[in-house]
Amino acid sequence: MTDHMLSKLGEGVYWDEVSESLFWLDILNSKLFKSSGDKIFSYQLVEKASVILDVKKNEVYLANESGIIIFDLNLSTIERVSYTPGIYGSDVYRSNDGLKLKENLYIYGVMLNKPVKGDGVLVLSQNGVSRIVYEGISIPNTFIKIPNCNSLLITDSFDGIVYKMNFNSTWSSVQGIEKWFNLSCTRATPDGGCISSDGRIFLAIWDGFKVLELNLDGKLIKEFEIPIPRPTNCTLNTEENKLFITSAYEGLSDHDRNKYPLSGSILIIDINT
Questions:
Q1: 3-state secondary structure (DSSP) of residue 259
Q2: Domain around 191
């Protein structure tokens, strides 16, 4: 991957099974990338986008600074899906991570560009209408749906804790919260993650040089060490034997960038070895 393809803050990685293509974002440089076959395509966005919620042929559903949009890869045009409510849609805030729950129903986190403890929210967008469903989070990350229930694993990376949040039947309110995985006593913090079809959880660990594999109870199964300090997110391919990992060089010194030159690239690891 050439220098101009490196991401200052790589995020939102998404595997599209239909096209067998990988998508990801560079939040801070407002770029969308698509890797298909041996080619990488780059698209400049008007606003900072942070999470890819869905891909339908040439349409990419993104959460950005002001809400949810559809970006047309062929035309580079934007269609609005919904706006982030109130002050949280202003330019001092941005989305950070999120998830498509079902058709026309999305949930995503919003944070300050310069995070302050407890000043972020979770937003539910349904059929083009958005509402705040939770307040008090700082840096919302992960957004993994637990199978067969209305519960999500959502990290507050400010605290270094992954929470299991239990929602009501319509996803419109949080009914209970419990700590699921805790790294608050370390220098590393959970960032984005994904789940396999058989219930294995994979978490990228910022400042941890690793991706963790855990079971549904939050028990550690395996550590995958990687040659970058700041992995940000991950997703599985169709066969679920390879993990694609985004990363960042944001905040690294020149010395550390030289020491870890793959920072900001996409890493691919075989999870079955």
A1: helix
A2: 3-270
